[in-house]
Amino acid sequence: MDDVLQNIMDHAVAVAREAGQVCMWEGLLIYVMTKSSTVDLVTQTDQRVEHLIIQSVKKKFPTHRFIGEESVAAGEACVLTDDPTWIIDPIDGTTNFVHSFPFVAVSIGFSVDKKIQFGVVYSCLEDKMFTARRVSDQEDVRRSIIATEFGSNRETETVEKIFSSLRNILNIPVHGVRGAGTAAVNMCLVASGCVEAYYEVGVHVWDVAAGSVIVEEAGGVLMDVEGGPVDLMSRRIVAANNGTVAHIVKEIDAFSPTRDDAPPTQ
Ligand SMILES: O=P([O-])([O-])O[C@@H]1[C@H](O)[C@H](O)[C@@H](O)[C@H](O)[C@H]1O
Ligand SMILES: [Mg+2]
Ligand SMILES: [Mg+2]
Q1: Residue 1: its pLDDT value, please?
Q2: Whose CA is nearest to atom 10 of ligand 1?
Q3: Catalytic residue selected from 70, 94, 149, 196
Q4: 69 annotated binding-site participant
Q5: From-to residues of CATH 3.40.190.80 in the chain
Q6: ipTM more than 0.90?
Q7: Known binder of ligand: residue 113?
Q8: In the CATH scheme, what architecture does the domain 4-133 have?
Q9: Could you give the CA distance from residue 19 to residue 48 in angstroms, rounded to a whole number?
Q10: Of all protein residues, whose CA lies closest to atom 7 belonging to ligand 1?
């Protein structure tokens, strides 16, 4: 099955980019009005861009709800329910837009159960797209998907330990075990919320360096496979959505490959 939230987020990114392009085209023909005070500016572009975003989303996700800055200014209710809701600032930085000060952003948050699931901020003049998604909020490891890999060490003892860990994890029991075949992507799966934890012994620092910050910035945790702080040179890693699921460390049959920073053998 598709990652439904990713599908929605992809649409948010596409429509934010499209909206940003409209801001750029219209930047030379700005019609300025005011709202709550003489310095609370709004332009027709704010209104047009919000309309564009809402229409585009409605076509694809007809049941979703909206809270938009300019719709609220026009009298619509600003009520957050548990329903999937797009919270839109079509131009954040309208004063900048009016003055050609070069930071103007389309800002879209998406909420379900009153919790923001992802955010997209497109800084259109810089052409920079900022996005973030949450890790899973699952606390029960028995309702989790765990990712791992078999690695490239086929020594009997190592393979035994890998299978022993796998057997323990399966017997928790967890909903499933997966492996994307890339440590970096496995870590991004944790960061993006569709896998609760990833563990592996035998990775290298270059496999996990980028993913480690992506997991932490998404709200996840990193750990050593025996439960202490992660050591990126140790070739052992657990990346989890939270400390509770990270308790899978007690099921891991740990071992210690030669560290990445070990002195070269003569
Ligand atoms: O009106 P808008 O340009 O979408 O949003 C404004 C901008 O975020 C600005 O930096 C902040 O100081 C104002 O309080 C906001 O209202
Ligand atoms: Mg704003
Ligand atoms: Mg605005």
Answers
A1: 40
A2: 93
A3: 94
A4: yes
A5: 141-251
A6: yes
A7: no
A8: 2-Layer Sandwich (3.30)
A9: 9
A10: 93
